[in-house]
Amino acid sequence: LPPGSCRTFWGWLNAVFNKVDHERIRAVGPDRAASEWLLRCGALVRYQGSPRWQQDYNGLPTGPLGKYKIEAINATESCIMYRGFEYLDGLEHVTDIKLEKCMYIQDQCLQRLSETSTLQKSLQQLKIISCGNVTDKGILALHKLTNLEYLYLSDLPGIREKETTFRVLQQALPNLELELDLE
């Protein structure tokens, strides 16, 4: 294989996984469609009332439309990217999101996340760990998540203006518990 061709292939494949299917969202509802997208990309979901993480795409629960509501997302080492964040638009019950070692997560993703009106109301906990493309700009965009109670940030080398960024964020979200593990 020529140099770079493998990386190009994986980039193409990730773009395919992250393409939003609006017909599918209409047909099965936002929670089911988002579950399918997240699991295809290697993330896990947990539904309201269940202690168990769903990790098997083929084992997605069936039932009446709208029965299973996503409460938590663990996107550790997944290939989710900005292009697929539209799947989050209709999710009304997500309280917890973990983004860890997500190589395609960047400022634009965090901005999109914070502009999602349903998440502005429901999201309470957010963890961003070892996402190398996140900078101060992405962290500052989180100020729109007005119900966010806990934010954990770790191993984010793109954050350069730590004190200023965190001061601005704390002023915008005075009830936020901010935990940092940044060197």
UniProtKB/TrEMBL annotation:
InterPro entries, sorted: LRR_dom_sf (IPR032675)
Official protein name in the record: ATP5S synthase
Protein species of origin: Dicaeum eximium
Chain's gene name: Atp5s
